[in-house]
Amino acid sequence: MSNSERTLNVAIIGGGMFFDEIIGQSFTDFMRGGISGALTSIGMSHLAADVADVQIRVSAVGTRSEASGTAGRIVTRFAEEFPEARVDACYGETVWKEILNSHRPDILFVATPDHIHTQPILDALDAGCDVITEKPLCLTLEETDRILAKAKQTQRIVAVDMHKRFDPFVREMMANARNKYGTINRVRAVLEEPLEVSTDIFAWAENSNPFAYVGCHWLDVVHHYLDVKPRTVFATGQKHLLAGWDEHHLEVARRRRVQPSSFRRRHKINTWDSVDVAVTYDDGMRGDYNNNWINPAEFEGAVNQEIELYGIYGRGIVDQQDRGYREAIIGDGSRTRNPSFGGQIHHCGAYPELFGYGKASIASGLLAIIRRRLLGESTESLNKTYPTAASQREVVQVIEAATVVAEKNHQHFQAGRGTPATAILSDSTIQYIEP
Known about the structure:
With about 425 residues, the chain is of the alpha/beta class. It folds into two domains: about 5-165 and about 340-390, Rossmann fold (3-Layer(aba) Sandwich); about 165-340 and about 395-410, Dihydrodipicolinate Reductase, domain 2. Helices cover about 35% and strands about 25% of the residues. It has 14 helices and 18 strands. The strands form four sheets. It has an eight-stranded mixed beta sheet. Strands 3-2-1-4-5-6 form a six-stranded parallel beta sheet, with helices on both faces.
């Protein structure tokens, strides 16, 4: 951070789908106009004047493989709008180490695959950085506790991009749920990603699963707004399509009337098609979470997502497909759009600017870091203002338990023994139960 001006130096590792959709445009906006304009979306506009002069500068973008050209493409994008700003493209299996040593960023933004979050976060904290990471924070409770211990030791912020918290429809329902619906008996949450995510976009799908990848969003929303603790986990899953993708992709190609060679991956993909998780919480509430990443490309929305609450006095549901924006276009079919997540505004020929809850989530973490670094506030005093790593501990606990239980039940079912496995959760442990 410069002593002569209030500038934060940001480095970003990972450049996949979400970078193109949200991260890249968000930081372009922050570099152009600072963070003040985004504060209304997170209820923090009273701090706009205090941070109006803070400049955000992206200095490096790192990806694993130079052959993909991803980092170079991203750097070119920044250079076109900010020719005076030097943004370096960096590559390597542990690219964050080089960036931390050579660029000494104030903030490391971690947008790597699900299973490669922990070490970059720990190394960044050791280097004196604050961190914003994509969800999920990590995949095991042990990793979570290492991150929390390091963040406490270094007194640095680890913010997690849990953008569903900031969806205005979800926030309105969840924040008022207990007052309107009374005691909540059950939550039903669905989030389904398109088939191309697991077969074409993510080469690392075998290192994660659809529940870890997107189920974490609904877990975070439920835990954050309803303040409940998970106590038991039951999970099952299906391995029909992706595990036989070497054969099934031929039938998918036939149905789509495309060449089988058009698929990036044509071998078996050893991961779940879908995972279904039932969580019982400390107040007796039941949460049912249904996630897959094999939704057909022909589905009308980018994703299928909905959350429904059942209370003793009423119920509420937020369904993306019912928000009222549909198009039917020759050659593109009928599509549901969601500009509330990542819409763009073009004003009088000016550069496009992103709005929506995808950007809001990033802004909340960035503001917390600014408040710690520049306004002198403590990490503890900021805990309620953004999605903290600590708030993800129980989310990760459920992810880990569900992953193990689903695999145990899959093996039992294949052997004709039903699905008897479950998990009991305490504040500190996971205990697996099976006959």
